[in-house]
């Protein structure tokens, strides 16, 4: 018996030694080898792709901020190629793996479901094989590189509707859609004509500025609105028409992934002058009209809903039934038909509460409770109720907004909701104008007038950063943190756009979306919330295009942290400047980095 026991002990010792050896080899290969992944990554300049092949020196100084053990990895692993389009909180594989019980009829499988920390992909998202620097705006509205989004099924599926056409190494966008085969421009002019707007221009002299396009396809409708100084939030889920939003963003058109499901849209009340649905395949009658009531919440007083669908014109029994029920629903919501022609109907929301107050008692849908905050949106369930106007808005009989472009710099009426004065607003606008001038001075050696198109302000406050970019051919996704003042409504009141978000989670967009990220104190904020700064850096890398820029305006300790990870993230320093503001941010540092354009060795072999 003693001999058997000794033999078992020896086997256990050998097994432990083997395990320890494997761990040591892994640590050496992963962190210790100076050549780790050096053979697996090549930079853009070596490939003739416009990147930089200089290695940034690793800063080995330790810091307690964000790094518990003072250890900084020399590199992050590169995700498998199959994750080149990973959207962590909209990952269908995660839903299957976690066996989430979701109601498919309510579109819950298209809503956000974020991975717990132990299931996060802490790796760099590789670009697809042969990736090229995106075509510049405005040319990109009509064509993109096929290798950047190597999906052509929509071109075949929608070939009769002119969504997109494959031509050689590019994908072209003729401007068609399911309901406007002959071009979005003609369709838009037709809508303006239906509403008797001057010169058949839909912006109505600057009074119609913000649009919500639900079920937008590849966002040609929103893309063609831009020439009329109209900004559209184009929204679609990652559904059977996969990559439609990815195509929109690659084209340089404002767009976001999302769905009308069970949660409120991440936009405040009274954000849009027009909502649009062109055969968007949404059942507006379900659950007592809850989805139509969500549109009502985000529409401004007197706002329009343009609906192009068979129910508006078809004469078969089912379509007629849907039309009757939908007409009855919107009538109880106090909407009126503003125009109806051929296959399109345009309803208009009331300007005041008068119609709501005149409804018979017990009329459905009911008015929302007085304690129902219409601007609370992050993780909040939709409700089947009508959002009435405040006493002030009821008396104003409208939004009280100036026409565009004066709207951008005019103090928004809802400033009073936060106790902000006109003077504070004007000071903030001027402050950010000066700051943006400083940013562009630092960026000037690296950028031309068309270098950046898609921009994100990760902590937008009142939107003054975006307002300062008004003379540049860019659009800005203004993100307002979910736990701060709900200033996103001020941003929409300025004729800009954005969304509410928590940076403890991944943003609802594809990899390689933005040309420039503006990170003002956002990394410091993440640390205070107890979330991972490194996870945030990896997320910023995911949504940033190769050769894109990040402007960090934060404390020196944050800049020191980012510098420790430059080499691991394949970023390089562009410029640094001490904040010269006489403001509360005077201890901040401006630190600008650029993401290198790199490809894996596997991609290089495929290209060869």
TrEMBL record:
It is an enzyme of class 2 (transferase). The chain crosses the membrane at residues 12-31. It is a single-pass type II membrane protein. Its EC number is 2.1.1.-. GO terms for molecular function: methyltransferase activity. Keywords: Glycoprotein, Golgi apparatus, Membrane, Methyltransferase, Signal-anchor, Transferase, Transmembrane, Transmembrane helix. GO terms for cellular component: endosome; Golgi membrane; trans-Golgi network. It comes from the Eukaryota. InterPro entries: Put_SAM_MeTrfase. It is found in: Golgi apparatus membrane; Membrane. GO terms for biological process: methylation. Belongs to the methyltransferase superfamily. This is Methyltransferase. It comes from Arabidopsis suecica (Swedish thale-cress).
């Amino acid at each position: 018996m003693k001999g058997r026991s000794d033999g078992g002990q020896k086997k256990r010792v050998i097994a432990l030694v083997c395990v320890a050896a494997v761990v040591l080899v892994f640590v050496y290969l992963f962190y210790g080898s100076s050549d780790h992944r050096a053979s697996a990554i090549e930079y853009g300049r070596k490939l003739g792709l416009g990147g930089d092949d200089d290695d940034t020196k690793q800063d080995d100084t330790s810091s307690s901020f964000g790094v518990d053990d003072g250890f900084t990895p020399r590199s992050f692993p590169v995700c498998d190629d199959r994750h080149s389009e990973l959207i962590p909180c909209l990952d269908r594989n995660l839903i299957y793996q976690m066996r989430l019980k979701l109601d498919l009829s309510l579109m819950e499988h298209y809503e956000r479901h974020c991975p717990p920390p132990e299931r996060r992909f802490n790796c760099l998202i590789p670009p697809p094989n042969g990736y090229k620097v995106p075509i510049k705006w405005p040319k990109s509205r009509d064509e993109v590189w096929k290798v950047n989004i190597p999906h052509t099924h929509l071109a075949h599926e929608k070939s009769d509707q002119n969504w997109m056409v494959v031509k050689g190494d590019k994908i072209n966008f003729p401007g068609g859609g399911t309901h406007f085969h002959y071009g979005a421009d003609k369709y838009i002019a037709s809508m303006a004509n239906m509403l008797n707007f001057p010169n058949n221009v839909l912006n109505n002299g600057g009074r119609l500025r913000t649009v919500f396009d639900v079920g937008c396809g590849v966002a040609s409708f929103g893309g063609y609105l831009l020439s009329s100084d109209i900004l559209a939030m184009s929204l679609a889920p990652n559904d059977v028409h996969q990559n439609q939003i990815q195509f929109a963003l690659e084209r340089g058109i404002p767009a976001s992934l999302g769905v009308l499901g069970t949660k409120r849209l991440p936009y405040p009340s009274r954000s849009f002058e027009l909502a649009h649905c062109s055969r968007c395949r949404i059942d507006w009658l379900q659950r007592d009209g809850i989805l139509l009531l969500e549109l009502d919440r985000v529409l401004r007083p007197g706002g329009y809903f343009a609906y192009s669908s068979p129910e508006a014109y078809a004469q078969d029994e089912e379509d007629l039934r849907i039309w009757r029920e939908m007409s009855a629903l919107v009538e109880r919501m106090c909407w009126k038909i503003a125009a109806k022609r051929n296959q399109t109907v345009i309803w208009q929301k009331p300007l005041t509460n008068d119609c709501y107050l005149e409804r018979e008692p017990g009329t459905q849908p009911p008015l929302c409770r007085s304690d129902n905050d219409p601007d609370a949106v992050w993780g909040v369930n939709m409700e089947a109720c009508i959002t009435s106007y405040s006493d002030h808005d009821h008396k104003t009989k409208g939004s009280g907004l100036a026409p565009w472009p004066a709207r951008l710099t005019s103090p928004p009426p809802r400033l009073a909701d936060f106790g902000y004065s006109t003077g504070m607003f004007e000071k903030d606008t001027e402050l950010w104008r000066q700051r943006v001038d400083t940013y562009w001075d630092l960026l000037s050696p690296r950028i031309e007038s068309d270098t950046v198109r898609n921009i994100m302000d990760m902590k937008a406050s009142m939107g003054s950063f975006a307002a300062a970019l008004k003379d540049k051919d860019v659009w800005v996704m203004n993100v307002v943190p979910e736990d701060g003042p709900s200033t996103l409504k001020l941003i929409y009141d300025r004729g800009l756009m954005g969304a509410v978000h928590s940076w403890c989670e991944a943003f609802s967009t594809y990899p390689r979306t933005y040309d420039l990220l503006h990170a003002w104190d956002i990394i410091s904020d993440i640390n205070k919330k107890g979330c991972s700064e490194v996870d945030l850096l990896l997320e910023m890398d995911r949504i940033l295009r190769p050769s894109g820029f990040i402007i960090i305006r934060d404390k020196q300790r944050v800049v020191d942290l980012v510098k420790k990870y430059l080499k691991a993230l394949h970023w390089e320093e562009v410029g640094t400047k001490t904040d010269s503001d006489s403001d509360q941010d005077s201890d901040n540092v401006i630190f600008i980095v650029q993401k290198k354009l790199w490809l894996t060795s596997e991609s290089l072999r495929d290209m060869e």
